[in-house]
Write a structure and sequence with these properties.
The chain is α/β, with parallel strands linked by helices. It is 28% helix and 29% strand. Strands 2-1-3-4-5 form a five-stranded parallel β-sheet, sandwiched between helices. The longest helix has 17 residues. The chain is elongated, with a radius of gyration of 20 Å. The N and C termini lie far apart (59 Å). The relative contact order is 0.09.
Length: 249
């Protein structure tokens, strides 16, 4: 497995490189300490897994990913790693595979690497944007752990919520006694692409508009069996897009 590290601190590169040596099949093909050098080497070595620092001398990690997209259709698994967790949301908006905080926790790195091996071997994240729940005959397949899964009708889904603590999206659906956790590689773009009935109403909530009854004081009310959900709010930024779906009287 071809791995690359982009970080402006040599000590950080050496530390991560040493930790990666214990994982099977890992070959560190290249390192870079600036964004420009990193972009050149990404396109030259085409790593399968890229660890990208968010703060580089000549650009940030988001700018790095945007530049790569501008000059090539090449894609790989990207793990943003940084000392600042406020970069998490912009990172996932730019479709990275995962997020790792510095100083690196060995358990967190194990989790990320195990996810990488599982997704790569199963072929479930072979396109930009991470993996997407499989759709067949109006049903979605959600993995409940590494091997088990549950089939859910699209029409039975009411709300997707982002769990910031677990860093995963969850889904509230009829017939499920608790929210189902999605894989960490599933992002909001993958969810919104499933069906036109799914609309984002805030940074952490996507709703099925077929269950939306009304919005009062920016709080959504839903038809049964989801009338007990009373804490989904419509953020100002998303309100116009939601309203534009309907004719008003």
């Amino acid at each position: 497995m071809n791995v690359m590290i982009v970080d402006d601190t040599k000590a950080a590169i050496d530390c991560l490189a040493a930790k990666l040596e214990r994982y099977p099949g890992v070959t560190l093909s290249a390192t870079a300490m600036t964004g420009e050098d990193g972009i050149d080497k990404v396109l030259r070595y085409k790593p399968e897994l890229l660890f990208l620092d968010m703060e580089l001398p000549d650009m940030n990690g988001i700018g790095f990913l945007e530049r790569v997209k501008e000059v090539s259709d090449y894609w790989c698994y990207v793990v943003i790693y940084t000392a600042y967790d406020d970069y998490m949301l912009p990172a996932f908006r730019n479709k990275v595979f995962d997020f790792l905080l510095k100083p690196i926790d060995d358990g967190e790195l194990d989790t990320i690497m195990n996810r990488f091996y599982a997704d790569r071997d199963a072929g479930r994240a072979a396109a930009p944007g991470g993996s997407q729940p499989k759709v067949n005959g109006g049903k979605l397949l959600f993995y409940t752990n590494a091997v088990d899964f549950r089939l859910v009708q699209i029409r039975d889904i009411c709300v997707f919520r982002y769990d910031h603590d677990a860093r995963v999206w969850t889904v509230v659906a009829a017939g499920c006694d608790r929210p189902l956790r999605l894989k960490r590689s599933v992002n909001k773009d993958a969810i919104l692409a499933i069906d036109d009935s799914f609309v984002q109403v805030s940074q952490k909530c996507i709703i099925n508009v077929n269950y939306l009854l009304e919005v009062r004081d920016n709080v959504c009310s839903f038809y049964p069996p989801f009338d007990g959900i009373t804490d989904v709010k419509v953020a100002r930024f998303f309100r116009r897009k939601l309203v534009s779906r309907y004719n008003s009287l």
